[in-house]
Amino acid sequence: MTNSELKNIWSVPKYLPYVQPELTPELLEQAQKQIGYKLPEKLVEILKIQNGGYIRYKIAETPQEQIMGIGTYFPSLTDFDWAESKQYVSFELDGLIPLDGDGHWYICLDYREHQEDPQVTWIDLECDHQEKLANSFAEYVELLTLDVNEGDLVIQTEHSIEENAKQIEQILEIKFESPEHFNSGYASYRGKYKDSWIWLTPNQVPAGFVREDDKRYHELKDQMSFSSVQYLDIPENDLFLVLSEEELNSEVMEKLGKHDIKITPITELLPEGS
To answer: Which pTM was predicted?
Structure first.
């Protein structure tokens, strides 16, 4: 992963409640004392860019979604307890520091054999299974690739998402529901085309979002005033069109193309090897 990719490893918009305050030397020292190990330099470098949250990249066939930050808010890299889990697995849990997980599985820094340069290991508590992903965190980062749905379509446009939604409705003879913002903090238009759900979303979005029912909403809401893009290699005004039944992609592209809407599979716009 290049320095540019490393700098932009974090997903946009960032889910603000999962981002810890800026990582300071004091916070880092306290965390390392708490877990009993020195954190890998590459991980510290990433957490200095943003102290935790969802990431753009993953290893294929793994459930990777985030890298936990260091702080007092949930989820935190230092906030774990294996006591109740030890009875369910045949392998040692002490020395594993979770980076991501949902209570059933975890991706962990694995200090059990290498206390100076931990491996990265995936564990499944329910299935009593462990699997090494990388010999070090630096190697793990090199294995990460941009997480992209290859069936996504990109509408290359200078017009607003509202204008495009109206035009698509007329061409495809569909009706979009009122745009929904709750799940991601930006407008998501949903409609039904034949037997497929169809979504229209923007590339330019708020840099961060927090839901109004979150207890930290008033603390974090001002951070939603900044904007960013979801895909750095795609122009900010472009839009994404996604169908749940991808076999209809060609048909939709043909119909929209006849009305001078420039629409392209996302894989053709991203750098090779993303």
So the answer is: 0.92
